[in-house]
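Budget justification note: compute hours in this period were largely spent on complex prediction jobs such as the one shown. Inputs:
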Amino acid sequence: MANERSMPKWRNFAAWSAVGAMLYILAVWGAIALLNQDALGAILRPAKATAQLGLGLILAMVVIGFTSWKRPLNLRTFRNFVIQNVVAVILFLLALWGFKSFGGAMGASEMVAAVTGLVLIVVAFFGSFAVASVHMGAHLVDDELAADDMRERGRLILYSFVWMAACGLLLIGLGLAGPGGVLSPAAALAGGLVLIAVLIVLGIVTWRLSDELGRTLSYEAGNMAFYLILMLGGGWAMLAHLGFVRGPAPLDWLTLFTVLLFAASIIAVGRRKLLTR
Amino acid sequence: MENHLKQFREVKGWSQGELARRLGVSRQTINAVETDKYDPSLPLALRMAKLFGVAVPDLFIDRWEPAEEE
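Corresponding output:
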């Protein structure tokens, strides 16, 4: 019995891993092509880059395999996967190209902040798109229970994604306002203040729309984020103080806060096994 | 915490969504309680018990026993 139950899941895992591998290869190829480099040479010549890309390929296969192994690979699920992921990758690559071409002289901190913000915006865009598709009756969400949740709590989920996008926009704005950036500090400050006001209002609205499970998860994510920041940010500051690494720039702290807040949210939900049905 | 919420709900013929609506919480919360992923607050547990006309210990199973006094 156990074999009968686990076999299709492993087949799903293998099939989705293969899909993930193809997507990853296309994404890497696209990224290198956008940077105007010899794609094959860039992948094969420096051994370190080849190893990193190989590890990335394995990671992409494992992540997509594990996150999709409960749904069979068929025309509908494949179409939904392609729509969501290929468009996401294309948007991400185009924005990355935009930063490179028009973002001015961006340093490492500015680039990391902008790319982090971009990831948040792309995720928020697709989350909002999924909610909108459910409300419009388009069958782009495979999981029926997830679709039901989106129908029932659409406003809350949508506001959460807007909150996420506002965080991303804030990081991008700050990233573009660094030394040599295209945004003036005054303009970035004005935009930042508006976004912070939006974040506060949305935070209050989503809190009011949440029920007790949502609020409990929010408390747990806050606690978790504090300890993650203390551990990782504190560890980084300690090593920098002792001269082992470069000290975190102010923008690094903001990026770290944002990334760890979202990481803590995922951990809080995952600890209660709410990421799986 | 183990509970009999699903059994009581099914006896009433309610879906998770229907029970969630009656209790003023999300369907996700009901699903999380039924699958032992979340223990509800005391007010919500009391409301659940009131809705099904039972006592809280009939709905939620606590196997803890006080230590015997010497």
